[in-house]
Amino acid sequence: MRKLKKNIPIFKLDKLVEIIGIYVTEEYRGQKISSKLVKKCKIWAKEKGIKKICLTVLPDNKNAIKAYDSMGFSNFLLEMRANL
Asked: In this structure, is residue 55 part of a structural domain?
């Protein structure tokens, strides 16, 4: 059996930017507003020395997921919920 090293963090905490939500009203969709906002966030984060950016999107929002994929985002974490 392999010997385990002590004091290895399970999660290494890095500074990151978290985008809680982006909503573009229907009349302004298709104008790349969300990609412009994300680009500004990425520039700001790099200036602050932050190397990670994350965001949350509902799984049925296929248009947003496609847009975020094109901006370099990928799946990282699946959040699951239950009603009590």
From this structure: yes
Helix (H, G, I), strand (E, B) or coil at 69: helix
11 within domain boundaries: no
C-alpha angle with apex 43: 41 to 48, nearest 5 degrees?
95
Note whether 37 and 71 are within 8 A (CB).
no
What is the full DSSP assignment across 1-67? -PPPPSS--SS----EEEE------GGGTTS-HHHHHHHHHHHHHHHTT--EEEE---TT-HHHHHH
Alpha-carbon distance of 45 to 15, in angstroms, equals 10
Q: Which pTM was predicted?
A: 0.73
Residue 19, pLDDT above cutoff 70: yes
